[in-house]
Structure prediction request, 259 residues.
Amino acid sequence: MNFSLMLNSVGFYQISKLSMIPVVCVMEWILHGKHYSKEVKMAVAVVIVGVGICTVTDVKVNGKGFLCASLAILSTSFQQITIGSLQKKYSIGSFELLSKTAPIQAISLLILGPLIDYFLTGKLLANFNLTFGAFLFILLSCSLAVFCNVSQYLCIGRFSATSFQVLGHMKTLCVLTLGWLLFDVEMTFKNIMGMVLAVVGMLIYSWAVEAEKKAAASKIHLPLVKQQNQQEEETSKLLSNEGKEQSLLKDVEFGVSRG
Prediction:
């Protein structure tokens, strides 16, 4: 996604980020057969429209940028879905999974990163002038990336990839708000309306997800209740039959003793 931002306009970059939500939904449906209720779909649409209103401005795209954005969307969506499925499949925690995958990601980035960077920018990494300030900011960026990855694994493991994408757009709203508070960035009526709409969509999404969980729990609970009732009925029938048999035996014994 960073390459997409470098090669495309900010508007197209925001559209690429917004398109990840429906892509994740479609991929979860294809890979895991997951279905979404109408309420969830409506909430996702409201979030996309709201964030799009307050972030998308100019839209300019080129061939390299479009290819990079498409690959980033597909790979990121697949990676987030895989994180959740692996945690559920093997019943492992977020930190354990991160400790296994982080070294592989780091090695692949060290090998492929310079090659991809040269392909996209035409500049070699060895020619970069590494100053103390640049080194300090690289170190700070890496430290923040660790916390970002941990939060990603925790959120996806606890909820889902779709929920992570929806909640992730709260970061965009926070960036806009902090820019207005700290750096005197202009906050237009369009931005405010988009932010309000996005927050409303997130609230609707939270309600819809909870409603889905309750509906799924009730579907599981009702058969169990029916099964318990059937078992109780069978037990009561057996007890009544045993009582009848015992009473018949007593009557027979009483008749024999009188005879």
